[in-house]
């Protein structure tokens, strides 16, 4: 039985001096013959189901034939995880600054070209090792504070990223607000999307916007492009560049379901087996058969509420909704018997002029004009 | 077709000078031959389903034979209704002071005895009219400000209460966090509980703790007691004292479901028909057949979490749960492989040593040690 | 030099499993010849200056001749202390429930009479020891959880109260929002108010409303009354009943000033020397000469804003303000050139019809109609 | 006497259907001979002093000889202005999404080059008129909703920007947290900085990051650059390009002081007189004599706290602080008698290795590791 080692990482201090800590579970096999793996959960405070998935992964991995280093980090953000306002967890951003916790990772495009020039003749192993070291050195330098310091969220994010940079495959476990399961996948890693038990995949371009997944694959993508400009060609996703990062959206926030977490863990093991992380001779973990839909990020659309009101969400997730069919009905009692201030219509259907697949909706029935109501695949294809 | 009249009530001002308003729908029949009715919804910000129920009541009442005055007030608390923190509505208390919005109504026990003494020989109609006027005068005096003023929440509550005091039957529509339907009913009004389509009723004593329901029936109960002490006996719930108030808990907060609201409205009409508010010759609105459980308030118990953690809520609402069966499992990843700081047990079952009926649970999967986890009937009986 | 011993008290757990801890500093002299002392700070999250006062007390006490046990507890409430919403600390209430953190202490009036009856002939030392033990046993029983558990705030409060019950003199260090220094003092302990360097004292009756100061002196007061009913007379504040508790309001919240804290600490040492806690032969710590005003709690009035708006606070703290002089001006730009929706008057003076002493005002310039604007002594006297 | 016209602008709807409104004050002289002016305040909820400045401007402008259109908008953001969490106003970001309210304005770089090409031979007046129309059309198109809608904050921001685009001089009135007065000024408008009564100016480059000031001058700067690339040269700040935008930081948030607002208004009139907006023959409004310091944005540095703790802010604003002198002392009681978990040092001085001018500091004494403690001019020069 495989024993995962646990250690406690310090990631910050609160006003009282209380230490912010994160538990880290890790396993190193005697012979490392496969890509290393990093999986974290709960960077956003309310998105807790990933912790249960890591629990189930730890249970399942006890009896797997593990071929490479695996690092698992639940409760990745202790500030967010413990921050309540009313009954709910204030999930997505630093309550002091408003900055999204998943937009604070580091990538400095400026170092790429000179690295490629300096390592133009390095062998593939050297390219891989040297570039990984460069990424780690950059994080180290940020953390090992310049005189101006870094933000609370950067201190947490950089310490997580330091672990992720040592891995080849990175999974960042999130959830939507009220949501179906979906996956963010780099366009070049399309083949892998079929190995998760997740029916909807959003393919993202190679641009860095501060998220964990981008912060770990974008540097390698940029490096590959820089080499290409210098007429040396590597294939992204292979060899030294066999790096893949995913944001896995497990469903709805503010929920723990250990049985569903077991299913989610099986889907992740299916991907890890496909990558050779667990011995693929046994073929234990196969992806489920399902219709998988893909969508490019540019076609993954947010619909903002055209009015304030009380929303009865109608559309079923994951199923194509014909043009003109209502996504939701909005109740506006102030319009009832609207002889003076209203338009006389207390119920409004929210429809679109094209067929879409609804993926998630807002967490509350009360919305302002301009609240993000739904996110949908506005153009999509089968995988 | 009955036409409800709408007017806009001003209940306060925000810092920008913006007026806080509440829509009021009212109907007065030519001949008033039955108890008057007051129904409000959404005093707590996140508890929105009552608005949809009022919408469905308005639709259904169009075609009823109405025998008395009916006043319907959705969006009763515009501060709470529009107050978001993160994606959720901060529901239960004034965000500045922390005071529960439903603990700000008025009742001054001190006036009861002297009223009874002064009206010891009044006929029943005079007792009823004079005492109602006293209650209204007291509210008026509070609102018509003394030099020290009143709080934001009192200004809202008193204006609502002023309307409720003019009615005989008062329904305050709320919801639980994640919850089954249940009803708060004064002990003396037990017979009425069978006319709602709600399977669980909590019988409350005649003590005033600041809530709308208490603020409207407790004065009458106290008056009846004062008369009894003066050897004049009235029957609570009959004649001049035919006053009933209920807090109707419609299910879970942060949700609008117009179809369920239609069902909820039918249940309320069943009660109103029983009371003669809508013509009972037709027998249109009959209560559903169901097993109804009752519980005294002292036996309606909150269970506070014995530890911090991530909760997988297991118990089904409304169904007796045998002693020793888990209400919930709490995940504590920091205890996993707890060689240093944990107890080695990452999963804890939360059980009780007696059979209970779970009624509602906390809205979030993340709880601190001491968060209210469940509310249950710890001792109960069939109605 | 006196060395205070430090230990870390566990007071709860957050959702991540993070332990909530409070540092406790204590000193026990070889011979205990004076009343024991308990001082805590920062029960409300934003009221931080007491921590600095405890720091300065620790520094000064190093070189005092200490005659009794002293326990000092900064950062008494780690949940509140670390809870930010925007840039400010959400101070006064549990963010989940809205309950004021300083209304969660314990006192069960029901045990008093039977204790007096059972200890009617006990000598004074026995009365003191037995009753203290009863209070501690009650706390222990609450903490040593009944099956239903206790709230997050009760768990913190009870553990603090357990330490306070072992002391005779209790100081709970708070601050107002934007505030002058003032003191809450039991009416029977009036003489002590002159030994603090605080110009304004509010004398409180012997009623329990959940606060730390009340929870430690009210039980003794009630016991003395119970004995009086049994015709045994003790003097409150003397002998076995030499118990005094104060809430010390150190000025404004959200501020640390170490120099002012040094002055505050000197004032506290003046009181402690008066009580014999530090050797009074030396007469090191004398109260400052100042005009001290007193006010009964019933005359300590909150003024709620008669309108929403932007407030220019004008009145000086601590100085009698003549009737008719403005406390504040409220700006209402929506009334400027009020041809349509306003009254044409953009500036409103807020005045009272009597002379008052302003003590504190609201922390923000933006107020709703009904926000607590000022607290004032409406009737007062020189001490 | 000049009469400003007031109208009420609708900028959105809340969940209850409540309309979000903003008052707009405007004046149009018979002959418009000078640059048009747009001034707004309170885009961030807690930054209220600008409302008082607009009040004083309205009072002073009554008696000025006004040469061009002036539009004044207090309470620009009704959502933020009315959003309390605890006693304070949650100021800087949308409480649902965390997005800074002053990062939601619009600028589409993509249209610049083609406009310049199509208007390469237009006369200066045509360039000015056509480009202003293009900017207005773009806003109109965004507001006149595409099927996906826009966010709550964009709807507010775009409606404000639409008014600002019609002006030549734009002032956005803000405040810091606890702050000295300072000014954000485009580098090309350096000469104007001397006409405000503000001692510290930050010169910002011509990059768009979503703020009001940038959204109004960056398009014109970009257009001037585009023309330069086409070999047609305009001078930024003159003729058709006489556009200037400033963010005016009036001091600390959560404060209204009408007397200081009068001074602030005089400083703004000094600038407006310099620009000919009010008749400069009279020379009524002259800038105060003071030492004015400038700093480039890249040298305006945030210092993040190296530890959690309680901060005694020491450094005086606006005065050069020598290298090594403490900006602040941080109290860490958990380190007191740090025999076990602390470093034994309860007080830490926060110093820098270079001379700086402190401009503002954090609003609360409680900081986490990584909270923005101070903002300082790290390199500066006299204007």
Can you list the strand order of the major beta sheet of chain A? 1-2-4-3-7-11-9-10-12-20
- Stated plainly, the CATH topology of the largest domain in chain A is called Aminopeptidase
Number of strands of chain A: 20
| Percentage of residues in strands of chain A | 25-35%
Q: In angstroms, what is the radius of gyration of chain A?
A: 22 Å
- Overall geometry of chain A comes to globular
Instruction: Give me the strand/helix succession of chain A.
Output: EEEHEHEEHHHEEEEHEHEEEEEEEEE
Q: Which structural class do the helices and strands of chain A define?
A: alpha+beta
- The helical percent of chain A reads 10-25%
Largest sheet of chain A: 10 strands, mixed
SS element count, helices of chain A: 7
Short synopsis of the structure:
The first copy, chain A, is of the alpha+beta class. Chain A has 2 domains: 5-290, Aminopeptidase (3-Layer(aba) Sandwich); 299-382, OB fold (Dihydrolipoamide Acetyltransferase, E2P), CATH 2.40.50.100.
């Amino acid at each position: 039985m495989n024993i995962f080692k646990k250690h406690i990482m310090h990631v910050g201090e609160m006003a009282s001096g209380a230490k912010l800590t994160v538990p880290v579970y890790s396993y190193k096999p005697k012979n490392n013959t496969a890509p290393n793996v990093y999986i974290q959960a709960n960077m956003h405070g309310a998105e807790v189901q990933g912790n249960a998935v890591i629990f189930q992964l730890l249970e399942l991995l006890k009896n797997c034939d593990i071929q490479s280093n695996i690092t698992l980090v639940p409760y990745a953000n202790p500030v967010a995880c413990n921050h309540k306002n009313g009954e709910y967890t204030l999930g997505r951003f630093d309550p002091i600054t408003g900055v999204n916790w998943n937009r604070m990772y580091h990538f400095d495009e400026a170092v790429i070209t000179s690295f490629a020039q300096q390592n133009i003749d390095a062998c593939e192993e050297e390219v891989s090792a040297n570039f990984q070291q460069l990424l780690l050195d950059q994080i180290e330098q940020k953390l090992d504070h310049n005189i101006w310091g870094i933000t609370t969220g950067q201190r947490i994010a950089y310490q997580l990223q330091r672990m992720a940079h040592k891995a080849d495959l990175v999974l960042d476990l999130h959830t939507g607000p009220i949501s179906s399961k979906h996956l963010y996948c780099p366009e070049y890693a399309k083949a892998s999307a079929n190995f998760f038990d997740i029916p909807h995949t959003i393919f993202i371009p190679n641009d860095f916007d501060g998220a964990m997944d981008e912060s770990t694959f974008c540097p390698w993508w940029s490096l590959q492009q820089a080499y290409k400009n210098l007429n040396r060609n590597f294939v992204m996703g292979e060899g030294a560049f066999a790096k893949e990062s995913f944001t896995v959206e497990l469903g709805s926030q503010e929920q723990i379901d250990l049985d569903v977490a077991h299913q989610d863990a099986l889907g992740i093991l299916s991907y890890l087996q496909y990558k050779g992380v667990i011995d693929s001779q046994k073929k234990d973990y196969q992806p489920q058969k399902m219709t998988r839909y893909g969508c490019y990020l540019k076609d993954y659309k947010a619909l903002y509420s055209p009015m304030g009101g009380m929303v009865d969400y109608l559309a079923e997730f994951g199923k194509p909704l014909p043009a003109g069919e209502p996504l939701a009905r909005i109740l506006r009692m102030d319009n009832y018997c609207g002889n003076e201030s209203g338009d006389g219509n207390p119920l409004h259907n929210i429809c679109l002029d094209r067929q879409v697949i609804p993926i998630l909706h807002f967490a509350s029935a009360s919305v302002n004009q301009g609240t993000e109501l739904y996110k949908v695949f506005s153009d999509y294809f089968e995988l």
